[in-house]
Amino acid sequence: MSDFHGVFPYLVSPIDASGRIKTDVLGRLTDDLIKTGVHGVTPLGSTGEFAYLDRAQRTAVVQATIEAASKRVPVIAGVAATATADAVAQAKAYQQLGADGILAILEAYFPVKDAQIEQYFRAIADAVDIPVVLYTNPQFQRSDLSLDVIARLSTHPRIQSIKDASTNTGRLLSIMNRCPDITVFSASAHIPAAVMLIGGVGWMAGPANIIPRQSVQLYDLCRAGSWDEAMTLQRKLWRMNEAFARFNLAACIKAGLQLQGYDVGDPVPPQAALTPEECKAVEATLSELGALSGA
User: Would 107 be classed as within a structural domain?
Assistant: First the structure.
């Protein structure tokens, strides 16, 4: 099994007004991120607007990412569905395209009990021969992964990691204590350096699209145990997370990338692009972090 670790940007899905995925823009972004030193890329995470794309658009995003990565770093493709059969079909298709791992997400309309939640994720892991990363985001998901379900799923031979986007860092420590067989990734809802300090292996998050160099630097400082330097940088970078908390996530990242010279387009409606004033706030934050030079 692969050893996933480090900084994995949740890639945006560049798209034009007609719904065409801008595969050339996505390819350039992926290539540039890899050149800055990120350890992997994740298409169709939350920042990738998976909930707003149809099957053909999702496939185009995954395929373009895999082609651009060209096996230089792992590509962990997001799989999200309300129906188990749909999720299984996506996972199989992305493995066939060449994905190195699957980020498994449950979209629920009606409430789903623990037994069915476990069955959903287990079915995805059973359907593929590549590692699976569990993803839970209780702020947006109707059916969350409980600690008991995570513990049972952690024994599956292909369920390798979890990204927990709750705001409860204590929950991450509980997962680490109860589930020694899987690794834990931070989200932008957590403070990555703090998660690394308690035993995390990296983070999967939207901000790494627009501050990749700084994110990799933070990861390297954490890995080296240079905690004073890491926390100095972390405090500085947290300004970006504070900006995200004020705006739509995909809109914020796309605005930042536009400022850096990537024609990624607007968020998919009914989401709205940032207003000019909101864009100025993002621009000011990026400028403070030295993330606009050379765009």
Answer: yes
Cis peptide leading into 270, omega within 30 of 0?
yes
Residue numbers of the domain that contains 147: 6-224
In a domain? residue 250: no
Whole-prediction pTM: 0.96
Task: Determine the pLDDT at residue 281.
Answer: 92
End-to-end CA gap in the chain: 37
Residue 247 included in any domain: no
52 is a catalytic site residue: no
Is residue 249 very low, low, confident or very high in pLDDT (cuts 50, 70, 90)? confident
As a whole number, mean pLDDT of residues 204-215 equals 96
Q: CATH no. for residue 33?
A: 3.20.20.70
Q: Tell me whether residue 11 is in a domain.
A: yes
What amino acid occupies position 230?
A: A
Average pLDDT over the chain reads 94
Q: Is the omega angle on the peptide bond into residue 138 within 30 degrees of 0, that is, cis?
A: no
How far apart, in whole angstroms, are the C-alpha atoms of residue 152 and residue 162?
A: 13
Q: How much is the pLDDT for 6?
A: 98
Residues shown for the chain: 295
For residue 295, what pLDDT is reported?
43
Residues 6 or more apart in contact with residue 8 via CB below 8 angstroms: 38, 39, 40, 41, 42, 76, 185, 202, 203, 204, 205, 208
Catalytic residue, candidates 94, 120, 135, 219: 135
Choose the catalytic residue: 10, 22, 120, 163: 163
Catalytic annotation present for 262: no
> How many domains, the chain?
1
Residue 138: per-residue pLDDT: 63
